[in-house]
Structures are given as C-alpha cells and as structure tokens.
Design goal:
2 domains; 9 helices; seven-stranded mixed β-sheet
C-alpha cells in the first residue's frame, strides 16, 4: 500500500443511546481484547460502544507509517459528530485517547480513562523499539505458532491460548504460511508525549494501571500530577485480567465527571 493512503480502520459498534464508549486497544492488540470488559459492563453501560482495530493491527490495513496523532484522526473519523463521548484506551491506545481528549481532532470527550500507558522509556528501550520496527514479519508453518507469537507480542500469552476465539483476527494466512497481522513498523512510534497530551486534555481524565503492571508504576503516574487508579489482581492487560473491576472504574469515572 502506498504511504499516505488512509483506509478507514475495521470497527464494530453495539448498544444504543446518546452516550458513546470508544475502546482503543494497545500495541499489537485488536478490538477482541475488549470483549471481557463489554460483558462485564453489560446493561450498566448506558449507551452505544465502538471498538476498532487500529491500522497495522488485526483486520485493518497496514500503512507506510504510524503515529499517535494519525491514530487519533482515524478514531475521530469513526466517532463523527457525537457528544457525550467516553474514551477508554489501553497502553498505546491510552495515548491515542489522550490525544482525542485535546479537542484537536474535533471530538468533545467527556471522560478519558487511560490504562497502562508506559510513561518512562530508557534509551535502550527506545533502541529496541526501533529495532523491532525495522524487522520483517516472521512467517510460521503452523497457525498455532503464529498465534503464540502474537500472544507474546500483545502480552496475552498467560491469559489466552492459541485456540482462544479472540486470536483469530490477529493471525493471517499468506501464501500457505502464517503471519501475525500486526505490522512491526508500529513500534517506531516509541514513547508517546504523555505530559504534553495530559496538559492538552479536556474533560475528566483518569490514569489507571494494574497493580502488577511492569510497564508503569503508581509513582510515575503521580509525577504526572494525577493520582493513579490501581486495579488489584491485574498486570498490564487490566481490561482482560480484571474486567469487572475495570468496568467499575469506568462507571465510577462517569460519576466523578457528573459531580464536577
């Protein structure tokens, strides 16, 4: 695909009502990671929901390059002219959610819940991300081997197995071999400018993390000027590991915004 061509992301909608919940997955993920949360929310969510596979992930097309701002523009186009928008993003998706909350992309975000954003990067980590971005896609003779590789990339290898239904969109059959649908070049995004994104964000912003998340600590969140919402019994994929508790956190953030 030629660089600069912007096919819309694959997306799915559900529910009904004026309020819109926008779910943005993290690096290497797909919209499938949100199904446990949607089940946990059930009828407690008072409105519609929208989840997508970001470009370079799952069922969405690849591009020549990727950025937080580019992803925010993609998601804003899917949202359209809506009011009463609640954005929930995980990891990279959390940074995209904060960019949307700035208003720069024409979306009026009422509440943003950003979970598991990595806010501090070492030089070695940035170098590794750049190295990963330059690697060609790995090809596997067996689907299960490709699925296992994707599960490690997405941090889901201790939560799902290769036969989990959520794995399906993450693996592609290409000319008799199997690849993960995730485009390694997304790694070139590296460190998102989280302090600047928080400074620009409007509405009510919550920074959340799993208590056992190795990617970000409570003190790192506090250094950004916010008190972290820490979910016990969860690591980096808090929305998969503790969906009921995370659902309660989201609904609580709505109540907080209403009381402001």
């Amino acid at each position: 695909m030629a660089a600069g061509h912007r096919d819309p992301p694959w997306f799915e909608r559900g529910g009904s009502g004026a309020r819109l919940l926008v779910l943005i997955h993290g690096l290497a993920g797909t919209a499938e990671v949100w199904r446990p949360l949607l089940t946990a929310l059930g009828d407690a969510w008072p409105g519609e929901w929208l989840a997508m596979d970001l470009p370079g992930h799952g069922r969405s097309r690849r591009r020549g390059s990727y950025s937080v701002g580019g992803y925010a523009a993609d998601v804003a186009a899917l949202i359209g002219p809506r009011r009463d928008v609640v954005v929930v993003g995980h990891s990279l998706g959390g940074a995209v959610g904060l960019a949307l909350a700035s208003g720069w992309f024409g979306v009026d975000v009422r509440v943003t819940v950003a979970a598991g954003i990595k806010v501090r990067w070492s030089a070695e980590e940035l170098d590794r991300a750049a190295d990963l971005a330059a690697r060609p896609p790995r090809r596997f003779a067996a689907r299960d081997a490709a699925a296992a590789h994707w599960l490690r990339l997405a941090g889901l290898d201790r939560l799902w197995d290769a036969g989990h239904p959520g794995v399906g969109p993450a693996v592609s059959d290409r000319d008799g071999a199997f690849e993960v649908a995730f485009d390694n070049r997304v790694n070139a995004i590296g460190a998102a400018p989280v302090p600047a994104l928080l400074a620009a964000a409007r509405g009510h912003v919550v920074m959340a993390r799993g208590a056992d998340d190795p990617m970000v600590t409570d003190d790192q969140v506090r250094a950004l000027g916010l008190e972290p919402r820490t979910v016990p019994g969860a690591g980096h994929n808090v929305h998969v590991e503790q969906p009921a508790r995370f659902a309660g956190l989201i609904l609580g953030a709505l109540d907080e915004a209403a009381a402001r």
